[in-house]
């Protein structure tokens, strides 16, 4: 006896839309079970987890700060994954963008003019694009698996950053500690409100809007979707696979790089050996949670942000371990994937081994 | 939607009121860089927190957030505690320095204590311990017990605190055996049991029969235990992970400091400052000497007593740098700022300092 996954003859469009909500429902239900098994009131715990982060202006601002890089990166990754281009190295492109954009504040620290900030942002995006172009080139030229090359380049970028902040870019007045000088004046991103909401949030919204239009209204968007779903059909239509790979990596790399420079010029304010708690990897979850749709990515980024902030709130208020955050995110992703899969496919039990 | 939002707000306010009416105790918060279960650095800070609850439980409540990554996330975690009505917040990793200062500026009435940093503010004090004093003691033990004359050192980041630890270990070893060799492996992490274990295996493979570490997990000791080598615990007593391999352990004792500083806040006598306590202050202690010949244990205890009394200064001259130049002249001792900014190796360390 064995189990096979069989495509359903027709899948309900309504169920496809409801799938994320169903997944969130399942996550909440599992969360309630976990909390009550820890001896906590499940309703109170879930309230702390999901409501507290939305209950004050400060935490809403913090939510935006946390979600901005996730959305910027996730929107780019959605384009990649739609085209069946597997860029797993957004974390590296994020780091490369942060390094490239930091050239100005670190090496030309005295330069202050309104041109500084746009130049930093452009350099950041260019750095991410250049870094994303490497796996694209290797894929197109040699057929190298982009999952491996882009992932491995993450470690290269992180070690490069590590070397820079411990070596040539170390703050000379920093007691030998591994960090760059603090970015000042025009080198820091403008913020709104009393908190840390910065230009990166606006850029994330712009990226979402632009990509939503590109994907749904332009030939390029059509090309990407066709190549992702039916590569042969795309080939007959004259869509170039190589061009799509390059386009996807440049877009996602550029957005990741932009997120990188926004993070160091915004909330961080300087380069440090570690500049990201894994945004580039978490954004992969965000892209799928948002169903590879830029607007969906925006919502997914906010939802994941809530789960981080809620995790801290739960630690501070309820005294639960931070591992709960990871467990929650894991359950959420598994639920999403399971719901999606089971709506399109069904599990059939096969008694004998048949021909497949 | 409006209704829903209203419901959320009502619920949130309910939570806030429930929090406020609990009691009028001083809320003391802790921000940890690792998990409390690391059995090293963070574990030991959490022991300090528990001791604080034990000592002043009727006047304070404590909260902690663990595994906070250094960078923008730290600022949010710290601000959360400040907004939550905490009167005193300990941030227990070097990388929390800028975040602590930023939040402190916005919450002038909240007191902050930042471990191992060097920047103070009117409401930010710094504190650290002279771990290097303990490293001198274990350096001597290593030189007295090693058969190969080689020790392996698993180091985290090449910051002054770690470099001064390596030098102190080497000076201790050289005071017993001037030919003693020390190999260093940098793992670029404070807590990564897998990498630490690999580093221990490499070092043992290169002939080291004593393993010591400036990383927080017990993995290197467990490797030493499995391969018949010896080693030292880090930050907390790790004897239960390596009953045959651990010779002693450098214990960070934060409990007294946390109780003292909390009392100061309660009395209204808290003031910013910088505390760098060593064995004399009880901030650094040695675990029971085990698996050692009696004379070695006795010599170690004597060294410990001499450091404690101030008779023995770890960085007393003459000390030569790796390149042969004089670091400290005979009859002088390295002043604290130079120890805190140390970026050179003493002669004899078999490694080049990552620059």
**SS class of chain B:** alpha/beta
Helix content bin of chain A: 55-70%
What is the level-2 CATH architecture name of the largest domain in chain B?
3-Layer(aba) Sandwich
Q: Which structural class matches the secondary elements of chain A?
A: mainly alpha
Shape of chain A: globular
Low-confidence stretches of chain B: 1-22
Largest sheet of chain B: 7 strands, mixed
Strand content of chain B: 15-25%
Overall residue-averaged pLDDT value of chain B? 90
The order of strands across the largest sheet of chain A is 1-4
Explain how this protein is built.
The complex is a heterodimer of chains A (356) and B (355). Chain A is mainly α and 356 residues long. Chain A has a domain at 69-286. Helices cover 70% and strands 4% of the residues of chain A. Chain A has helices spanning 13-37, 42-50, 57-82, 90-107, 116-142, 146-166, 199-217, 219-229, 231-236, 241-268, 279-289, 294-318, 323-344, and strands at residues 2-7, 191-192, 197-198, 345-350. In chain A, helix 1 (13-37) packs across helix 2, helix 4 packs across helix 11 (279-289) and helix 5 (116-142) runs antiparallel to helix 10. Chain A is globular, with a radius of gyration of 22 Å. Chain A starts with a strand and ends in a 6-residue tail after the last strand. The relative contact order of chain A is 0.21. Chain B is of the alpha/beta class and 355 residues long. Chain B folds into two domains: 21-129, 3-Layer(aba) Sandwich (Rossmann fold); 132-251 and 285-350, Rossmann fold (3-Layer(aba) Sandwich), CATH 3.40.50.2300. Helices cover 41% and strands 20% of the residues of chain B. In chain B, the strands form three sheets. In chain B, strands 12-10-9-8-6-7-15 form a seven-stranded mixed beta sheet, sandwiched between helices. In chain B, strands 2-1-3-4-5-11 form a six-stranded parallel beta sheet, with helices on both faces. In chain B, helix 3 (72-83) packs parallel to helix 4 (97-106), helix 5 (131-145) packs parallel to helix 6 and helix 7 packs parallel to helix 8.
């Amino acid at each position: 006896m064995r189990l096979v996954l069989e495509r359903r003859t027709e899948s309900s469009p309504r169920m496809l839309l409801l799938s994320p909500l169903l997944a969130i429902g399942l996550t909440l239900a599992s969360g309630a079970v976990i909390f009550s098994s820890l001896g906590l009131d499940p309703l109170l715990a879930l309230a702390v987890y999901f409501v507290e982060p939305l209950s004050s202006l400060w935490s809403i601002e913090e939510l935006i700060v946390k979600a901005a890089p996730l959305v910027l990166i996730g929107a780019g990754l959605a384009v990649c994954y739609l085209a069946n281009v597997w860029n797993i190295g957004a974390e590296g492109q994020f780091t490369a963008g942060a390094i490239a954009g930091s050239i100005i504040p670190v090496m030309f620290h005295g330069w202050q003019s309104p041109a500084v900030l746009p130049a930093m942002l452009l350099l950041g995006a260019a750095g991410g694009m250049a870094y994303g172009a490497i796996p694209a080139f290797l894929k197109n030229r040699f057929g190298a698996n982009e999952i491996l090359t882009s992932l491995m380049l993450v470690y290269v970028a992180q070690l490069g950053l590590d070397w820079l902040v411990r070596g040539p870019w170390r703050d000379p007045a920093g007691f030998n500690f591994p960090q760059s000088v603090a970015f000042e004046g025009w080198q820091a991103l403008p913020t709104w409100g009393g908190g840390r909401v910065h230009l990166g949030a606006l850029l994330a919204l712009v990226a979402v809007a632009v990509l939503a239009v590109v994907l749904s209204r332009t030939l390029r968007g059509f090309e990407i979707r066709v190549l992702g779903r039916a590569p042969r059909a795309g080939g007959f239509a004259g869509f170039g696979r190589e061009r799509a790979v390059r386009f996807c990596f440049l877009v996602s790399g550029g957005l990741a790089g932009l997120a990188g420079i926004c993070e160091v010029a915004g909330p961080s304010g300087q380069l440090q050996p570690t500049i990201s708690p894994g945004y580039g990897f978490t954004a992969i979850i965000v892209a799928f949670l948002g169903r590879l749709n830029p607007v969906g990515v925006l919502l997914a980024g906010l939802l994941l942000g809530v789960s981080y902030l809620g995790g801290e709130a739960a630690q501070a208020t309820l005294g639960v371990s931070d591992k709960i955050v990871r467990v929650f995110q894991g359950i959420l992703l598994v639920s999403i994937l399971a719901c999606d899969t089971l709506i399109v496919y069904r599990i059939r039990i096969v008694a004998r081994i048949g021909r497949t | 939607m409006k209704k829903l939002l209203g419901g959320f707000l009502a619920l949130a306010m309910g939570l806030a009121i429930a929090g406020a009416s609990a009691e009028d105790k001083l809320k003391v918060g802790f921000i940890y860089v690792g998990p409390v279960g690391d059995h090293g650095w963070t574990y030991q800070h959490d022991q300090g927190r528990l001791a604080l609850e034990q000592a002043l439980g009727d006047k304070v409540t404590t909260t902690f957030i663990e595994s906070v990554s250094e960078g923008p996330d730290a600022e949010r975690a710290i601000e959360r505690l400040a907004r939550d009505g905490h009167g005193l917040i300990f941030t227990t990793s070097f990388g929390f320095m800028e975040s602590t200062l930023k939040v402190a500026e916005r919450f002038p009435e909240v007191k902050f204590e930042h471990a191992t940093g060097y920047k103070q503010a009117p409401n930010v004090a710094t504190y650290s311990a002279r771990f290097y004093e303990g490293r001198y003691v274990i350096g001597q033990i290593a030189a007295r017990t090693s058969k190969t004359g080689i020790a392996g050192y698993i180091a985290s980041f090449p910051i002054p605190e770690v470099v001064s630890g390596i030098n102190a270990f080497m000076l201790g070893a050289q005071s017993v055996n001037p030919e003693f060799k020390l190999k260093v492996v940098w793992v670029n992490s404070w807590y990564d049991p897998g990498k630490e274990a690999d580093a221990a295996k490499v070092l043992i493979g290169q002939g080291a029969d004593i393993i010591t570490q400036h990383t927080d997990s017990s993995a290197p000791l467990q490797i030493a235990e499995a391969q018949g080598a010896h080693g030292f615990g880090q930050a907390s007593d790790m004897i239960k992970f390596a009953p045959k391999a651990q010779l002693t352990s450098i214990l960070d004792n934060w409990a007294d400091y946390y109780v003292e500083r909390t009392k100061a806040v309660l009395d209204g006598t808290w003031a910013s400052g910088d505390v760098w306590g060593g064995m004399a202050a009880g901030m650094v202690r040695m675990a029971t000497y085990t698996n050692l010949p009696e004379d070695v244990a006795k010599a170690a205890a004597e060294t410990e007593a001499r450091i404690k009394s101030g008779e023995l200064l770890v960085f007393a001259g003459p000390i030569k740098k790796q390149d042969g130049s004089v670091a400290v002249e005979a009859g002088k001792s390295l002043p604290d700022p130079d120890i805190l900014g140390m970026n050179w190796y003493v002669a004899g360390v078999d490694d080049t300092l990552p620059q």
